[in-house]
Amino acid sequence: MSTTHEIPFTAGTAPPRLPVPPGAVDCHHHVYDAASPVAPGGRPHADASLADHARVLARLGVDRHVLVQPSTYGLDNTLHLAALRQAGRGRARMVAVVAPDTPRAGLRAMAAEGVVGARANLVQGIPLSVDDVAPLGRTMAELGWHLQLYATPAIIAGLAPVLRALPCPVVFDHFAQLPLSDWGASPAWAVVMDLMQAGRGWMKLSSPYALDQARPEAVGELARALVAAVPERLVWGTNWPHPNATTIPDDAALLDRLAEWAPAAATRQAILVDNPARLYGFD
Predict the structure, then answer these.
(1) According to a count of CB atoms within 10 Å of the terminal CB, is the N or C end of the chain lower?
(2) Which domains does the chain have, with CATH numbers?
(3) Is 183 in contact with 175 (CB distance < 8 Å)?
(4) Rounded-to-integer distance, Cα 226 and Cα 256, Å
(5) d(CA 164, CA 162)
(6) What one-character-per-residue DSSP string does 118-142 give?
(7) What is the pTM of this model?
(8) Which is nearest to 9 in space by CA: 223, 196, 248, 198?
(9) Are residues 128 and 120 in contact, defined by beta-carbon separation less than 8 angstroms?
(10) What is the DSSP letter of 83?
(11) Cα 112–chain centre separation
């Protein structure tokens, strides 16, 4: 992707039309440093700094954010922990990538800095696989963290007994990649909805462009169904710097789509402010 825009990895310069409430949270973004070692199987990415992301937040009028360790760096959380320290606990939290057997002292040290969960990229299966989900969930429960999953509907459906038995909350990335045609018939939909309706699951309304290339209106239909069913279990994120996008999106336009999905200001307040505060422990 080109980085020739005024702010790297985002199109447009105008602020969103949507009124953004104070305390809003971007619940999913990454940072990259081309000089940092790439883990085996990881995908390199051009520089995308915390300062660049701060400019995105300023344009959007969003106050707080959640750093998410990408698979690019595997189990080495150094870059994102440094960004977390730079941002400060008042404004930022982090989701790390850790192995189930990571020494607890190291995890507790991460928690003291603002790490609140761990992510498993089950699509790539590196550095963690489906076999790690159950033991990682037990580790999350020990720490009071959540488990964030990037997984296909087939993986989610295949893990249904494991996910329903996990002793920790589960956060599904990017609409859980649910199919846009007849999603209600998808076995993954049943799993995700069961967890959210039981108060044990969350979903990120992020990266819609990865779903809606063939029929742009379909992701809105899915989003509105989620908002109608479980508005208290939804959060929103930019996914900046959009590592898997084929075309750089306009982050303000992405935020404006939330007004279409959740027309009521009180619902948007929940998705942008109140729900993230509960999930990530913001004051």
Answers:
(1) C
(2) 25-280 (3.20.20.140)
(3) no
(4) 17
(5) 6
(6) EEEETTTT-S--GGGHHHHHHHHHH
(7) 0.96
(8) 248
(9) yes
(10) H
(11) 21
How many Cβ atoms from other residues are within 10 Å of residue 265's Cβ? 12
**Longest Cα pair distance anywhere in the chain, in angstroms?**
48
The rounded distance, in Å, linking the Cα atoms of 28 and 269 is 17
Burial class (CB in 10 A: 0-12, 13-18, 19+), 264: exposed
Dihedral of CA 78/143/202/84: which sign? negative
- Going from the C-alpha of 13 to that of each of 152, 201, 252, the distances in angstroms are 33, 35, 8
Which DSSP letter does residue 23 get? T
Distance, CA of 274 to CA of 277 (rounded, Å): 5
Kindly give, in sequence order, each residue whose CB lies less than 8 Å from that of residue 51, ignoring residues fewer than 6 positions away.
Answer: none
Give the pLDDT confidence of 138-179 residue by residue, as tens digits.
999 999 999 999 999 999 999 999 999 999 999 999 999 999
pLDDT band at 4, cuts 50/70/90? Answer: very low
Six token digits for residue 113: 């800095």
**Exposed/middle/buried for residue 247 (C-beta within 10 Å: 0-12, 13-18, 19+):** exposed
Amino acid occupying residue 176: A
Amino acid found at 84: L
Name the nearest CA neighbour of 93 among 120, 63, 123, 73.
Answer: 63
Q: Average pLDDT of 68-79? A: 98
- Which pLDDT band holds residue 183 (cuts at 50, 70, 90)? confident
Mean pLDDT of the chain: 95
**Beta-bridge partners for 118:** 96, 147
Residue 213: the pLDDT is 65
Tokens of 179: 């199919």
